[in-house]
């Protein structure tokens, strides 16, 4: 570890040697935390960025959100800080694989987070901003408003009435879900993909919406439920990157998975060394999305491999993803049978060992009932 007394000296240290993680305060002599982390994101994108601060005003916090992977408040428990750093380092080790870096580096134009997403992020974090203001932010982008309303009125949300305005969408679904839908809309509007046998953007988006709606229902606490929704809705970004980088190879892997009956992520690791899970998590990490969302992407097939501390959001996304995958292949009954399996092998059905360790096993009967109702619907 290297300790410095300000942003300028931190930059000087980074010019000397590479680092895995930077932990920055907000208020420092000379260069503040926002400018420092913005510099790090631009010139050292592989570094994980944490804020540890107790004196920043609300405006400063809102300003730093797009540049920080995690925000910790002072006073901070030492174990909490250590745990956050360990989780980020574990993710960095997993994601900065040479295969991922080479593949992503070869894509001419990577998907990017829309500015609207960050505008909504700041607005949601500001206690002075209400639902009417949030609706106005979305309405400032007419094309995004149309896409969001299309998603809101899909069968996956099961609303009893047609939602015709963004204001109604905010009221029915909440600002966090609306923000996630702006991200989902951008990801699945990627144009110019070649035709790939067995690959369908429409089917990916349908599965993402169903998975997100299910994962959200599994989590009771509102903030974590919204995190689960966001995480589940963008799990397939890794598959889209594979389609952009190696369409012929992806078609071959899809054919192999179908012919052998093995999960797609297993075939991907065998043939190219990584799966869509790690690839998608890498991009999400570069975007600066919160650690629980990135972890859910990285470990949603193999949650037992996740570092200590990852639990409810990852568990909800893991179960929802397995259920949607089973239902797509064999219907609602096939999905329900997952709860009766005793195979704890990573990447096979439900990871009961992880669910037990995370304290989520007692919730499985409730989740099973929710899934049965949801998957039996239209």
How would you characterize the overall build of this protein?
- The longest helix is centred in the C-terminal third of the chain and has 26 residues, at about 310-335.
- The relative contact order is 0.09.
- The protein is mainly alpha-helical and about 375 residues long.
- The chain contains 20 helices and three strands.
- It has helices at about 5-15, 35-45, 60-65, 80-95, 100-105, 115-125, 130-140, 140-150, 165-175, 175-185, 200-220, 220-235, 235-245, 245-260, 265-270, 275-285, 290-300, 310-335, 350-355, 365-375; strands spanning about 20-25, 50-55, 70-75.
- The chain has two domains: about 5-75, Response regulator (Rossmann fold, 3-Layer(aba) Sandwich), CATH 3.40.50.2300; about 115-375, Orthogonal Bundle (Hypothetical protein af1432).
- Strands 1-2-3 form a three-stranded parallel sheet.
- About 60% of the residues lie in helices and about 5% in strands.
- The model has no long low-confidence stretch (mean pLDDT about 85).
- Strand 2, helix 3 and strand 3 form a beta-alpha-beta unit.
Task: Please sum up the structure shown.
62% of the residues lie in helices and 4% in strands.
Write the layout of secondary structure elements.
Blueprint: H1 7-16, E1 21-24, H2 33-43, E2 48-53, H3 58-64, E3 70-73, H4 78-95, H5 98-105, H6 115-125, H7 131-139, H8 142-152, H9 166-173, H10 175-187, H11 201-218, H12 222-233, H13 237-245, H14 247-260, H15 264-272, H16 276-287, H17 291-299, H18 312-337, H19 352-357, H20 364-375
Parallel strand pairs: 1-2, 2-3
């Amino acid at each position: 570890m290297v300790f410095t007394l300000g942003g300028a000296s931190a930059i000087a240290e980074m010019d000397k040697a590479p680092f895995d993680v930077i932990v920055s305060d907000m208020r420092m002599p000379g260069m503040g935390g926002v400018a420092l982390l913005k510099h790090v994101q631009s010139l050292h994108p592989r570094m994980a960025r944490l804020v540890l601060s107790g004196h920043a005003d609300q405006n400063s916090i809102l300003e730093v959100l797009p540049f920080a992977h995690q925000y910790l408040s002072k006073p901070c428990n030492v174990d909490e800080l250590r745990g956050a750093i360990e989780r980020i380092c574990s993710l960095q080790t997993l994601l900065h694989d040479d295969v991922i870096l080479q593949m992503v580096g070869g894509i001419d134009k990577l998907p990017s987070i829309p500015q609207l997403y960050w505008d909504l992020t700041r607005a949601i974090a500001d206690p002075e901003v209400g639902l009417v203001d949030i609706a106005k932010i979305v309405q400032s982008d007419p094309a995004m408003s149309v896409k969001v309303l299309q998603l809101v009125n899909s069968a996956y949300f099961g609303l009893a009435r047609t939602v015709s305005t963004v204001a109604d969408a905010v009221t029915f679904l909440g600002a966090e879900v609306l923000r996630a839908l702006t991200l989902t809309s951008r990801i699945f509007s990627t144009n110019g993909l070649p035709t790939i046998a067995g690959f369908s953007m429409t089917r990916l988006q349908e599965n993402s919406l169903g998975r997100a709606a299910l994962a959200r229902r599994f989590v009771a606490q509102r903030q974590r439920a919204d995190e689960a929704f966001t995480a589940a809705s963008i799990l397939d970004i890794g598959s889209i990157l594979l389609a952009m980088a190696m369409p012929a190879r992806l078609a071959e892997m899809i054919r192999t998975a179908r012919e052998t009956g093995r999960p797609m992520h297993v075939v991907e690791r065998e043939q190219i060394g990584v799966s869509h899970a790690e690839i998608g998590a890498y991009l999400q990490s570069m975007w600066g999305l919160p650690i629980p969302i990135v972890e859910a992407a990285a470990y949603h097939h193999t949650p037992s491999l996740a570092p200590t501390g990852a639990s409810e959001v990852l568990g909800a996304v893991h179960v929802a993803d397995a259920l949607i995958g089973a239902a797509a292949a064999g219907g609602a009954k096939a999905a329900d049978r997952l709860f009766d399996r005793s195979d704890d092998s990573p990447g096979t059905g439900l990871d009961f060992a992880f669910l037990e360790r995370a304290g989520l096993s007692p919730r499985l009967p409730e989740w099973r009932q929710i899934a049965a109702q949801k998957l039996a619907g239209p």
